[in-house]
Structure formats: structure tokens, C-alpha cells
Amino acid sequence: MTKSALQIARAAYQPKLPKALRGAVKASEGEPTQSVADQHAIKELFPNTYGMPIVKFVESDQKVEYPAINVGVILSGGQAPGGHNVISGIFDGVKKLNPDSKLYGFILGPGGLVDHNYMELTADIIDEYRNTGGFDMIGSGRTKLETTDQFEKGLKIIRELGIKAIVIIGGDDSNTNACVLAEYYAAKKYGVQVIGCPKTIDGDLKNEMIETSFGFDTACKVYSEVIGNIQRDCNSARKYWHFIKLMGRSASHIALECALQVQPNVCIVSEEVEAKNMSLDDVVTYVANSVAARAAQGKNFGTVLIPEGLIEFIPAMKALISELNDFLASNAEEFSHIKKSHQRDYIISKLSKVNAEIYASLPEGVARQLTLDRDPHGNVQVSLIETEKLLAEMVGNKLAEWKEQGKFVGKFASQVHFFGYEGRCAAPSNYDADYCYSLGYAASALIANGKTGYMSSIRNTTAPADQWIAGGVPITMMMNMEKRHGEMKPVIQKALVKLDGKPFQAFAAKRDEWAINTDYVYPGPIQYFGPTEVCDQPTKTLQLEQSK
């Protein structure tokens, strides 16, 4: 691998660790837990891993001699900055327990476990990837671990390599799979531990014990830098409205965090759209009003931030997508044989009257995008729906109508952008480098303490790293029942933007000013080196949430 100057410099960075993980570690256990909802159903499905206590690691004077252990690690789902540091943390953690311990990486995600595709991760390999972005050390994949056949195939290579524990690094769906695997191996008394780590740039895998998912900090800083560049261009040329869609399919955390960092003219928050029962036309009118208000001041330019999953939060669209999901889950084979030119009419003929009318009213491109193949979890692939183009076009049409009626006197020209993949493999910020390394190290401590069905947890991360609280949370504690592929399934409950939470309230208090004024912030690139107030700060979201 040819290294850039940045990579060479970053390799020398030593991630910070919580004080409790630096020496001998003792596990302190709390009270029994229960799932966030649907307690009876979750307990019935996970009898061997339900109700376990929260674990907190504390410093210990007792030195314990651990036998050498072999551990397997899997990167699952979309990339997020810091994954390599989680693996580095696991490696250093198990080597500290016993220098003869080994770490195996399964190639290209959970499929590597099932297909017995793996490599031993040695110190030379680990050192190549410390503090780097991407998941290219072992690759990632989206294979779902859900069948007995997969579990048993995985067990075969686990036994062959003498692996004691598997660490699955992933988002809510991947950690749900980790929980199912942990339960299966526990029920069979196979003696194989399964630990999860919270990854997703979307920021929707969090709760009182998981402050943030790793990668969110870095991705938001990368997007904010580019949005800041666009806003500077916007304020220089003064002739375009930029419609910028940001990743985050199930929650608006990224859009909200970027808004707090760059102060755009408009930021749509999907959760608010749903709470206010807004229609697509309501959203378009809201943006058009901002354009008209600025035009009245002679400002024919601006920026609009749009969450990737907006379409699914518009109540009428949500109902349509729900019916489409159920219909396509049951009739996928028949639909695949319908000619593309007839698919629209076919769908309209199969939907309920209300949803058929909404579907028929959509532009051809958006209607087609709603019927594309679902992801492995049965969800619409919202990243393929060009919401930014849809809104730019519809706002343009609305303003043209107003112009004819004498309600709009300005000019309107738009540019569209989608920022997603640009942020997923960025070199991790200092925060993510430290947080991820600590998550991996804590995972090794959970393994040493015989835990399974737990997610690694690092809290109090707005404080200096030596004050961070390391431990583990039972994955069942985060679960509820949701409909997937037409059936009720146990899944980790997604964390949406709370409209009464401090981050949204801070945004809501300022957005009317930002809408009219050109009060842009240009945050610039992530700073790795320099004053701590520049380079070591967590997201504004986390700072607001944790402020006392």
C-alpha cells in the first residue's frame, strides 16, 4: 500500500483510552435489564440473553492471568470512519490479555464467516491501518446472519480456528443479527461469545447507554466542510439555490448536525415533517416561501439541506411505501415479469385507492425509484430516490405559478447535490479515532469477562478521555418488534431526532434568522493537529445532548 503523507503522520497518533481500560480491569454489574418495548415477545425470542445486567469496567489492583484466546472480527454493512481503529483496539486488547492471543478477520462481512473466507490479522497488518478510514483491511458486506444453516456453517470455521468469540461491527440491523447469533450459540451451549460494536454514520444507533454510533462525528465534519465550500460559492456567485441531500435513511441526525455546523437557509428535519403531518406540497411550499422571502431582499441564492429518508417520513408517502413494501414482498416474482413500460400502471391497479392516487401523482422517475429492489432488510433504497431533484423541480414549478400570480418577483435557478459516499471512508477525526479504539478495547474486556450478546459501550465522551465510562450493554435491551418483509421481527429500535431534544431546539431557535440572513459558517476541513478546541471537539449534537 502506498501511503500518503497524512496516513504516515496519522499512523503515529496514539488514540486515547478511558482510565478504566489502561490497567487491570474489573467488571461491575448493574441491575437486570429489559427491552425498550415488546418485553414479552423479546424475552420469548431470546431466553438465554434477555435481562442481563449492564456492565461497567472499573480499575482493579488484581492482576489476572488470562489464557490465550482466538477472536474473530466482522465488519458488517456500510462503511463508517473508525472501523480500523475498532479492530486495532480489539487486537491490542486481546494481546494485552495474553500475547499469544490471535485475531482473525472474516473477509467481506458476515458472508466471510459463512463461506470460511478469513485471514489472520497480525501486528504488521494492524499497524498499516491504524487511524485510517475505510473498511479495506478486511472489507465489509451485507449478508444477513439469520438461518440455522448459516450459524452452523460459521461454527465449523470457528471450531477449526479455535475461536472463542466473534465481534460484529455494524449498525442496528447488523447488531440485531449479532444478538440472534449470540442467542443461538448460547441456546446450543456451543461456548462461542458474540459481541457487537455500534457503527453507522447515520447516528440512529444510540440510546442512554450508547451515546453515539462511530463514524457520525467524522462524516458530519466532512459533509459540513463541503457544504461550507458550496455556501461560500453560493455567496460568491449569488445566483443559485443549492439543494443538498445528505445520508441518513431512517433519521435526520446528519442533516441536523450539519445545519448546526454550517447554518444553511433551510434544513428539513424528517421527524418534524411527520409530527406535523406535512404533505409533499407542504414541504415544497415551506422551501418556496424561504426562496421568495430572500428574493424580496434581492437575494436569489441559498442552501437547502435535505435528509436522505425524507420521502418515508411524509405520512402519505409513508403509507404508500408501507403498502408497496408488503405488496412487493408477496408479489416480487410476478412484478419481475412485468414490462418496464407497464410497471407503473400495474402498481396503480394493485394499490388501495388513496395510495394509487398518490403514486399516480408522482413524477415518473420517483415512482420508478420507489419500486426498485429492496435492500436485504426489506427497506426501500432511499439513497436511489433523487429527493433533491424532486424538491428543486417542484419548488421551481411552485415559484413559476406564484410568478404568474404576481406573488414572486425574483429569479430561481437550482443546483443539486448528494453527499453520502464522500463521508463514509474519510480518515477518522480525533474523536472517532479515540472512540473507536476504546470500543474495540472494551469489546476485548467483555470477551475476557465471558460476556455474550452485549454491545461495547463508551460513555461520557464529551469529557476528557480518561473520564470516559467503558462497559457493555445487553443488545436485547435495545430491541423491539417491527414489520420486515411483511412479518414482525425483533430489531434494535432506531433513535430518531427528538423534537424536544436540545440539538433540535437549538436549531429551531435560529432557523428563522438563518432563512432570511446569509449567516453561513465555513468550518473548513477536519483538523487533526492543532489546538484541542479545534481538533478534538465532538459533534454539536453530542455537546448539546450531554450539556447539564
From TrEMBL:
Q: Which residues bind Mg(2+)?
A: 172
Q: What class of enzyme is it?
A: transferase
Q: GO cellular component annotations, sorted alphabetically?
A: cytosol
Specify the superkingdom.
Answer: Bacteria
What's the short name of a Pfam family annotated to this entry? Answer: PFK
The entry summarizes how activity is regulated as: Non-allosteric.
Any one Gene Ontology MF annotation carried by this entry is: 6-phosphofructokinase activity
* NCBIfam families registered for this protein in UniProt: PFKA_PPi (TIGR02477), PRK07085.1 (NF005482)
Name the UniProt record assigns to this protein: Pyrophosphate--fructose 6-phosphate 1-phosphotransferase
User: Can you name the source organism?
Assistant: Bacteroides luti
